[in-house]
Amino acid sequence: MAMTAVARETVFALRRQIAKIEGTLPERLAAPAGASPDDRDIADVTVVRRGLAVAAPDAFLRTGIAPLDAALGGGLPKAALSEIHGTETRDAGAVAGFALSLAGLILTRQPGLPVLWVGTSEIFREAGFPYAGGLRSLFGIAPEQLLFSETPRLLDALWIAEEAARMTALAAVILEIRGSPRPLDLTATRRLHARAQDAGRPVLLLRQAGEAEPTAAPVRLIVSAAPSASRATIAGPLAGSIGRPAFTVNIGKSRTALPGQFTLEWNPDEHVFEERRTQEERATNPVAVVSASRRRPHPAPASGAVLAFPAVAAPASGDQPPRHERPAHRRPRRAG
After folding, report:
1. 3-state secondary structure the chain
2. Helix axes 154-165, 186-199, angle to 10 degrees
């Protein structure tokens, strides 16, 4: 029993030191629900809950996916710095699409405020800008609600993001960084996190093709593109088609220290996330894509066999219709 207590204190001290380095000191300990008294003495079940884990439920931005929100301790914190990490350059599109999805959810709660996207010329030249024509249809974001700030140097981008994070006139701030630059250290992320907490606005840090490093962000999500499912039709999945955008989301760091991996699909019609279901779940709990006809209980049956008509050969150059059948000779002649 004494050895168990010593082990628990050792793990607690290590976690407290890690939280101190990351700038998020633990505020309480919570054992998993349903744990027995003997299990509570085991150090492995001790969960450190940091920062906003003791805040009100409305302090979180819920993704709408219950398992993901539960693993994050309620969702993404609204007044904090959240890191969205892409390990490779090819994940830049998925990371940006996931950030735009979150921005769409944020703007539904604050429709009158814009979102500022800050980045260097290098990142915008490498990954490009979001297509303004698809913002409204895919994410429910009006083009005038998404502002961009392009800077030549990373230090300028950090300064603009830090100043914008303290402004309550913005719904959120997105800072996109490529690689693992030296200016983006623990001190810089602490300032961004402090500004977000003071203003009560979220700051999303997009990391493109960089290694996971200690930051002050309470949450780190590792996002990559997931294979898109086929489009659903009445007759079933349409082979060879491309369905909704899909993301693979791994929890790299959270307040509850609970890891997890989720496959999310973005519904561009409802502007919400949906968790991808397996084929077995779709078979047991199907979803009607198109409602049945009003006077018939079932949709119309599938069409029968498709017959291909033989191709009609083009007439030869010498095969001309008779003179009296030519259109020119059926028309009245002009007098004179």
Report:
1. CHHHHHHHHHHHHHHHHHHHHHCCCEEEEECCCCCCHHHHCCHHHCEEEEHHHHCCHHHEECCCCHHHHHHCCCCEECCCEEEEEECCHHHHHHHHHHHHHHHHHHHHHCCCCCEEEEEEHHHHHHHCCCCHHHHHHHHCCCHHHEEEEEECCHHHHHHHHHHHHCCCCCCEEEEEEECCCCCCCHHHHHHHHHHHHHHCCCEEEEEECCCCCCCCCCEEEEEEECCCCCCEECCEECCCCCCCCEEEEEEEECCCCCCCEEEEEEECCCCEEEECCCHHHHHHCCCCCCCCCCCCCCCCCCCCCCCCCCCCCCCCCCCCCCHHHCHHHHCCCCCC
2. 20
Cα–Cα distance for residue pair 80/221, rounded to 1 Å: 14
Tens digit of each residue's pLDDT, the chain (336 residues): 455 666 667 766 777 666 665 554 444 334 344 444 444 333 333 333 444 344 566 789 999 999 999 999 889 999 999 999 999 989 999 999 999 999 999 999 888 899 999 999 999 988 889 988 889 999 999 999 999 999 999 999 999 999 999 999 999 999 999 988 999 999 999 999 999 999 999 999 999 988 888 899 999 999 999 998 888 778 878 888 888 999 999 999 987 767 889 999 999 999 999 998 654 444 454 544 444 444 555 555 555 555 555 655 555 555 566 666 555 545 544 443
Strands 81-86 and 115-120: unpaired
pTM of the predicted structure, to 2 decimals: 0.68
Q: Which of 90, 109, 77 is nearest to 220 (CA)?
A: 77
